[in-house]
Write a structure and sequence with these properties.
single chain, 394 residues, alpha+beta, 5-stranded antiparallel beta sheet, 4-stranded antiparallel beta sheet, 11 helices, 9 strands, 18% strand, globular, binds protoporphyrin IX containing FE
């Protein structure tokens, strides 16, 4: 009876969030037993200085969900949404059913579930908090390579939901969308996957080892380049930004390229992802190396030559997922990359690299950006009782 009541309250709107926050670990463990969790499935901590799902070792499955605010919402409504998500996420990530969970059995396997919330520019307008909006929080400028579809772009709020099991992701998406249905509409859902043996770099659907050059979690570089320190917007200390680009791959014409052509396009070997100037994956590429005829071994047009940072401040974290959806009638594939980049400052770190790739990148022949969105990722919830985005609203 209690659960039914709570469910109705939650579905009724954001004001009901009070019941969803402030429950400590004890309550979570209890609910976990209630739902029949028998083993101790792997879980990622929910509470912390940063939101989980960014420094977290990438899980196998992801869903990025973009939402639009329903008209007329104010600051309290938006805070209410984030309170509901906080309560739901605190439970689901620890293997406990959410308050309004209609399939509590599905919560028993958290499978390293993380729920990461993001805010788009529209939130700051609706909440009357423009003065707290980071300067870089706006749609990316248009690039000549773009063929953006509104259906895959923008959005007022984001949930990034990742787990090692697809059922866990599907359940979390359902619960988290359902609990705010009176306040938000789902604008898009982008599902993706990545597979690799532990410690190995995964491959994208063009067959390349993808993710070699990156910023390692827990390093000073990560702290400096990914996490905001609050210097410009104090409320954002511990947060970051997400640029999500949906990039379609034209696999039918990529299939026509021989292995050597494929390697020259990226500048790395297909077999193990080593740079064309090296033999092991993590060898440093030598962009100055030339062959016997004086021709660069890594072409200046290669993806890694163009994407390489020109100074330290142009680096960001890549944590992307493959997508492989149903092809349109008459087509054979609908595949690509959910390219997800995290950085403290989109304008300084991401934009120059994206601009270089748009100006020229051998890979562009087979890749087309069809979706684009930018979100601020608020800091984490340090402990029970707080809620996502709290520092922005207080
Ligand atoms: C490196 C694929 C889009 C930035 C790489 C590598 C591959 C790859 C295979 C080499 C291995 C590695 O270091 O991970 C792709 C594909 C894309 C795509 C298939 C589109 C479908 C982008 C975009 C950006 C980007 C849009 C940024 C705006 C980078 C960076 C590196 C990289 C910074 C590391 C370069 C280095 O310093 O060596 N990408 N990429 N990529 N990519 Fe991409």
């Amino acid at each position: 009876r209690t659960r039914g009541l709570t469910r109705r309250r939650l579905l009724g709107g954001g004001a009901a969030a009070a019941g969803a926050v402030g429950l400590g670990a004890g309550a979570i463990a209890l609910t976990g037993r209630d739902t029949g969790a028998q083993t101790a499935p792997a879980s990622e901590p929910f509470y912390g200085r940063h939101q989980a799902g960014i420094a977290t070792a990438p899980q196998t499955h992801a869903a990025f969900v973009g939402f639009d605010l329903r008209p007329g919402l104010d600051r309290d409504d938006i805070a209410g949404i984030l309170k509901i998500w906080t309560g739901d996420a605190a439970r689901l990530t620890q293997g406990a059913a959410a308050l309004a969970d209609t399939e509590p059995e599905l919560a028993a396997r958290p499978a390293r579930l993380t729920v990461t919330a993001g805010l788009g520019p529209g939130v700051f307008t609706a909440a009357g908090l423009e003065h707290r909006k980071p300067a870089w929080l706006r749609p990316l400028p248009p690039f000549v390579i773009d063929r953006l579809e509104p259906a895959w772009s923008d959005g007022d709020l984001l949930l990034q939901i990742c787990a090692d099991e697809a059922t866990t992701v599907a359940h979390a998406v359902r619960v988290l969308c359902r609990s705010v249905t009176s306040l938000l509409t789902v604008r898009w859902v982008q599902r993706g996957f990545r597979d690799a043996a532990p410690g190995q770099t995964p491959r994208n659907l063009m067959g390349q080892v993808d993710g070699t050059v990156n910023i390692a979690a827990g390093t000073p570089d990560f702290d400096r380049l990914v996490w905001d320190d609050g210097a410009v917007q104090p409320w954002l200390a511990g947060g970051t930004s997400l640029v999500l680009r949906r990039i379609a791959m034209t696999l039918d014409t990529w299939d026509e390229i021989d292995p050597e052509g494929r390697e020259l396009t990226v500048g790395r070997k297909l077999g193990n992802g080593a740079p064309l100037t090296g033999s092991r994956e993590f060898d440093e590429p030598d962009f100055a190396a030339v062959d016997a005829h004086g021709i660069p071994v890594i072409p200046p047009s290669a993806h890694i030559a163009r994407a390489r940072h020109t100074h330290d401040g142009e680096r960001f974290l890549r944590r992307g997922y493959n997508y492989d959806d149903a092809p349109a009638p008459g087509q054979t594939s609908n595949s690509g990359l959910l390219f997800a980049a995290y950085q403290r400052d989109v304008d300084v770190q991401y934009l120059p690299v994206q601009q270089r790739l748009a100006d020229f990148d051998a890979l562009n022949v087979w890749t087309t950006p069809i979706g684009s969105s930018v979100f601020v990722i608020p800091p984490g919830v340090p402990e029970p009782g707080g809620y996502l985005g709290q520092t922005l609203f207080e």
